[in-house]
Amino acid sequence: MNQSLRSIRLLLVDDNPMMISGLKMLLRQEAGIYICGDAPNGKEALEKLEYLDADIVITDINMPVMNGIELTAQIKIRFPLVQVIALTMYSDPIYVKDIMEAGASGYVLKNTSRAELREAIMLVAADNTYFNNEIAGSVLDAMLDFPKTKNNGFEESHLVTLTEREQSILQLSSEGHSLETISRKLALQLPTIEMCLKNIYRKTNTKNNKELLNYGKIHNLIRSTPA
């Protein structure tokens, strides 16, 4: 989906009508986001996806008829281009692990701010993943079954993988390009580049560009370029 051409189309799925109503009020204030429909369970969501041109499904996990985990798995089979963000009250890593393994790209708690929910939507729409800050650490611990070792001050984790877009941003950054230049080279809006970069920081557990580039060199995420 090209964000510059149209709004991000959302399908909201939750068995609580008040939650659906609240989300509509919250997200309708956001530019570039359009709610194309809603459903009270996974079964009805799948039926609506047959005719609604949704980009992202935002779903609760615990619902009657078909829960969010089953819904996510079916979406990835039947509508592989549709992204899924879980929006739930559950912070238990086992729920995160199950729905991410089913194919979700984001996990946000229901007490999140409007700004953070928008950030999650924008990142997932740009083919990235997003974890709520409150659960990010426990999520990695739950999903990783690899030993961690210290390497020049960084915790090495084999789960850290970058999307093709994130890899391109990291590579161009390592070559000394500004965010504005990277935006032009990749034909992406500057806010999208900034959000992708923030996601890379989160994935690599780095705080600034210097740490990130050092991490990238240590973990062979940056290609050497001819002098």
TrEMBL record:
InterPro entries cross-referenced by the UniProt entry: CheY-like_superfamily, NreC/VraR/RcsB-like_REC, Sig_transdc_resp-reg_C-effctor, Sig_transdc_resp-reg_receiver, Tscrpt_reg_LuxR_C, WalR-like
HTH luxR-type domain span: 155-220
GO molecular-function terms, A-Z: DNA binding
Occurrences of domain Response regulatory (ranges): 9-125
Gene3D superfamilies: 3.40.50.2300
Domain of life, source organism: Bacteria
A GO biological-process term: regulation of DNA-templated transcription
SUPFAM superfamilies the UniProt entry points to: C-terminal effector domain of the bipartite response regulators, CheY-like
Chain positions found as 4-aspartylphosphate: D60
Keyword Nucleotide-binding: no
Keywords for this protein: DNA-binding, Phosphoprotein
Pfam family membership, one: GerE
Name assigned to this protein: Response regulator transcription factor
Organism: Adhaeribacter soli
